[in-house]
Design a protein that fits this description.
mainly alpha
Length: 171
């Protein structure tokens, strides 16, 4: 009797894992990653000090989810291709273009971009509290960081100079 239930549990487990893995297409990972970070950015803009923002955006939850997808994709590349091809991107623009023509590598770089931008957005939200930066400038910086990455960071850095009344290259 117990063996029967163990066997049923095993069948259900295998069925669920297979369904989950078939759900994890590159397209679905892309959509989930893109849609998943939008609420984080909205929370950073609307209420950066709220408990939901602290729990979901400023904790390890979102980086853990994005890195899990990253590791899954890296493992898929390891199974199907030469993972060391990624180092060809340093040889020239044509090699970078060839690397990005592979949707697995392109998706890994996109997840990397989403993660780093969200990290920078968190830093801007936290740092702006220290120097009492105007909410308008913080929102502009966060929006620019979401859409253009480093441009938003540089914009915030220039705004920060006026609020902190000093130029500091290492802070």
């Amino acid at each position: 009797f117990i063996g029967y239930w163990i066997h049923c549990f095993y069948i259900i487990q295998v069925f669920m894992i297979n369904n989950f893995l078939s759900f994890l297409t590159y397209e679905n990972i892309y959509y989930i990653g893109n849609i998943g970070v939008i609420p984080c950015w909205l929370l950073l803009i609307v209420s950066p000090n709220h408990i939901f923002t602290k729990f979901f955006v400023k904790s390890v939850i979102i980086p853990l989810l994005l890195s899990t997808a990253y590791i899954f994709l890296a493992y898929q590349i390891y199974l199907t291709e030469n993972i060391f091809e990624v180092f060809n991107l340093y040889f020239g623009l044509n090699d970078l273009y060839a690397l990005f023509s592979n949707e697995q590598f392109l998706l890994i770089f996109w997840l990397h971009f989403l993660s780093i931008n969200l990290f920078v957005g968190n830093w801007i939200a936290n740092d702006s509290k220290i120097f009492n930066v105007s909410k308008l400038f913080v929102i502009l910086s966060l929006l620019m960081t979401y859409f253009t990455g480093p441009v938003g960071l540089v914009f915030y850095w220039f705004v920060r100079i006026f609020y902190s009344k000093k130029i500091n290259f290492y802070d």
